[in-house]
């Protein structure tokens, strides 16, 4: 099934929009991919970034804000059947691709707890609170489609990340799939992607950006080199090539 948004008003469907571009915008101005012509909607109200089979919603500093399932958000990792609310309009997110099970529970869902540290975060009500024992979650990811793998292509690189601190220090996660999501939704999220030219890390969600070798990342994909040190939500990890 194609990942898409269903736009409706007062229960009546207005349109369907496939998420077939890396980034789409929603707003009142006509240059947006999804135009919502209502004065309560900002000129550029929100954007949806799609990486692999995952989509991420971002409020573009709109005047009246964005809700997901009734709660205000600034950045949010979308899940199947989530409902985005912009003014009186609703956008239902549909992405019912089956998740491939893995016999390796650590590879399927990795939860890492850092040493007790305190981070200032905003909860869904907008209030600032304290978050302790940062978690990093590697969400289920999809393999590279077979049609993209050709016999003439260079060998696929093998790599892994190893946890360096916290109770899970020493544990490894093999990066055998096309996309690995790391982080805690609502706090800090990054993705590791495997491309023909190598591995890249991209910041997706959270006020604080990850760092590589002590340098804070920008919003652009950053190439990873053998033995790079990544820090994300208090977790330190080493990226290394295998084989």
The backbone outline, from C-alpha atoms, is: elongated
Strand elements, count: 25
Helix and strand content put the structural class at: mainly beta
Distance between the termini: 36 Å
Which strand order does the major sheet show?
2-1-11-10-7-8
Radius of gyration: 19 Å
How many helices? The count is: 1
Helix content: under 10%
Our estimate of the beta-strand percent is: over 45%
Largest sheet: 6 strands, antiparallel
Give helix and strand order, one letter per element, not per position. EEEEEEEEEEEHEEEEEEEEEEEEEE
Oligomer: single chain
Mean pLDDT: 75
Which segments are poorly predicted (pLDDT under 50) over 5 or more consecutive residues? Answer: 99-144, 148-154
Summary, kept brief:
With 243 residues, the protein is mainly beta.
Protein model, in words:
Helices cover 2% and strands 49% of the residues. The radius of gyration is 19 Å and the shape is elongated. Mean pLDDT is 75; it is low at 99-144 and 148-154. The strands form six sheets. Strands 2-1-11-10-7-8 form a six-stranded antiparallel beta sheet, with no helix packed on it. The chain has a six-stranded antiparallel beta sheet with strand order 17-16-25-24-21-22, with no helix packed on it. Strands 4-3-5-6-9 form a five-stranded mixed beta sheet, with no helix packed on it. It has one helix at 105-108; strands at residues 4-9, 12-18, 23-27, 34-35, 46-51, 54-59, 66-68, 71-73, 75-77, 83-86, 89-94, 110-113, 118-122, 128-132, 135-138, 158-163, 172-174, 179-184, 188-195, 198-205, 211-212, 215-216, 222-223, 228-232, 235-242. The protein is mainly β. The relative contact order is 0.13. A hairpin with a 3-residue loop joins strand 18 (179-184) and strand 19.
């Amino acid at each position: 099934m194609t990942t898409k948004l269903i736009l409706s008003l007062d229960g009546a469907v207005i349109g369907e929009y496939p998420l077939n571009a890396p980034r789409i915008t929603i707003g009142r101005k006509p240059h947006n991919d999804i135009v919502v012509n209502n004065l309560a909607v900002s000129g550029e109200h929100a954007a949806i970034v799609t990486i692999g089979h995952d989509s991420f919603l971002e409020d573009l500093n709109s005047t009246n804000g964005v809700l997901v399932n009734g709660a205000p958000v600034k950045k949010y990792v979308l899940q199947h059947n989530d409902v985005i609310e912009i003014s009186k309009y609703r956008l239902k997110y549909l992405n019912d691709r089956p998740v491939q099970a893995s016999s390796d529970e650590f590879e399927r869902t990795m939860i890492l707890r850092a040493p007790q540290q305190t981070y200032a975060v905003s909860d869904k009500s907008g209030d600032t609170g304290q978050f302790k024992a940062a978690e990093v979650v590697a969400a289920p990811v999809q393999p590279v489609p077979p049609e993209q793998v050709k016999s003439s292509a260079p060998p696929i690189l093998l790599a892994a990340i190893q946890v360096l601190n916290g109770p899970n220090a020493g544990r490894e996660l093999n990066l055998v799939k096309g996309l690995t999501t790391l982080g805690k939704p609502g706090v800090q999220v990054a993705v590791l992607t495997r491309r023909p030219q190598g591995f890249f890390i991209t910041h997706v969600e959270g006020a604080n950006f990850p760092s590589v070798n002590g340098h804070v990342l920008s919003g652009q994909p950053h190439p990873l080199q053998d033995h790079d040190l990544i820090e994300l939500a208090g977790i330190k990890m080493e990226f290394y090539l295998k084989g």
